[in-house]
Amino acid sequence: MRHYHLRCVILQIEILAAATLVLPFILYLKQDFCMTSNHNMVQALRSNRPSRLVILALVCISAVLNLRSFQHRVKHDFVHGDAATVERSLRELRRALPSQGRVGYIADENPFAPDASWDAIKLYYLTQFALAPLIVEPGTAPSLVVGYFVNFNPTRVPENLVLIQRFEPGVMLFQKRRE
Amino acid sequence: MAAIALACIILSLVLGVWSSLSFVWQWIIGPITPGVELILLAVILAFGAKLWFYLRRLVPAPRFGWHWLSVLFVLGSVHATYWLLRNITKIYPQGAWDAWAIWNLHARFLYRGGTGSWRDYLSNSLSWSHPDYPLLLPGLVAGFWRIVGSEYSWVPAALASLFAALSIAIMCSSVSALTKDNRGWLFGLVLLATPVYLIQPAYQMADLPLGVYFLATVVLLQFANALPQIKKHLLILAGLSAGLAGWTKDEGLLFIVVLLVLFTLTFAISRSWRAFFHHTYFFGAGLGPVLVVIISFKIFLVRPDTMFRGQSYIELLTDPQRYAQIAAAFLDQTFHFGLATINPILLVAFCLVLYGVPIESVRITRFSFSLLLLTPVMLVGYFMVYAISPYDLSWHLSSSLDRLFLQLWPMFVFSLAMISVPWANAESFTSPATR
Prior knowledge:
heterodimer; A: alpha/beta; 6 helices; 5 strands; B: mainly alpha; 0% strand; globular; disordered C terminus
């Protein structure tokens, strides 16, 4: 609620400031039609040193204010991205995989399911990012399959897969069982 | 100041040309070694330096004085940029979502899959990572990785910071060069006081480089208008810059179309067809080679099913609710642009009041007016792209509109700065040799 009020106040200040800025131009345009160009507000403003200093100060103060408020947001509102964490957890697995080709991918959730959560989609994208130039395909079609589980449940692993190696917690490499 | 502006613009063009050539090498010839990459960069850099020395002799070089505002600006910008980079890069070492899902992912394919497996990302399996997106930024990142010999995460972050610094430097120096006073620093300050502009280097997305190429194109065209003695060279460079915008993001292709349409309209209204062919010829000479790369990439490498998703455009275009939703989002973005406490659009207005708009002395040429129209026409283009978007509209608007505004922001600020230029001054902006 406090945030909403603050936004309203800022909006009002902005409208007020915009009106203050537009007014001299309207007056100037009016004068341009009615008077000689020597009597316009913009020129008066340009030649008036104190007004210029006030506006200049306003620009600089606004800029500093923007940077300070943004600095506050970065310090308090920003949360750490998890790309580096996923990258670290897949480093050992990457060494065990071929340098190119395709690998399958299974996880707690299928990232391509219509009701997949953003976390599941993100984990799959990050896995692809870490293992490039291998193509990581959701499913178990390729002979090697990468498993990335936050909460590992062995019953979710398809029966045609054999565990070859465990890496970081939740990271596994499976191979397709020969028919 | 014109020499500084040209140096920054040429540096951004050198990076773009290098990225394009190394991609063409990897595609046509095969894997590119670090040595070849380094030689390629050195040759393009040397050519860029030679061009700059040549152009510098032909532009005026007024004595450069350090105004207190400029000192304050440089100190403030260095401090703010350092602080933000240090902190945000710690938070997002791999960049934001689009960086690792698109740009840096494509860069990894180019770098790690040198022997030919880099083409695998173009398969339909990775359609979510937009394999049809142009490759200027990924090519640049992969190129520097090859040269430094490892996949350091600071490389894309440093490149993004370089582009941010270049855009602010181009803004300050080009505005000051055209106005022949210190106001360039103030318009640079407006860019610096746009927080969303500072966050982009940490996000490592392609919107900032795209904004730099937009800005560079407009600055070069404005310089071409003011410096007749090097007009041809500047028009060629402007064409190259527009082409590199198209090789950075698809929005750059829209920019090229809008620019050419405005060109044609401007000259058609004044019926100066000779000037039109002159401008288009030299502009096209710069644009052509990059356009060939873009079109070849889209035709021969990208699978059509990753570009077109079989949507019904008629159905989307005839839905009035979509227009209302997009208009509301555009209005909201205008009010809350830049993640700022004080809207940066207001700051530009303050600057215009400070310097005044000398309407009675302005002779805004049709050419300058067409450049001023670029931003609004581009916004109309973006509006229509949203209207036919195949994605969920709310998600598409919320995830990209702020970045689209950001791409146009430097070019828009520069165009507005040009309103405050008494054109009598700008037209006398010629070298001592030609005066």
